[in-house]
Design brief:
Distance between the termini: 13 Å
Shape: flat
Number of strands: 4
Helix content: 40-55%
Strand content: 15-25%
Number of helices: 3
Length: about 70
């Protein structure tokens, strides 16, 4: 849970297999694929986390290709 604008946001991420090994590898792979597909989009934002950089595109890829559910 995180306090954002005085609201609590809860997120649950689940996947198949060992979360420390299998799911992490799948997430890293999907971020790399998405980065490769969008590398021509230059940003002056500085360092961004994967979710802030790719937003719903990353969530969609994780759910479709990596068997990871985000609620």
């Amino acid at each position: 849970s995180e306090l954002v604008n005085r609201k609590i946001i809860k997120t649950q991420i689940t996947g198949k297999g060992d979360p420390g090994y299998g799911s992490t590898a799948k997430m890293i792979t999907e971020v790399a694929v998405l980065l490769n597909e969008t590398c021509n989009n230059k940003s002056n934002s500085g360092f961004l986390t994967p979710i802030s950089a790719f937003q719903n595109d990353l969530v969609d890829r994780l759910q479709e290709y990596a068997e990871i559910e985000i609620d």
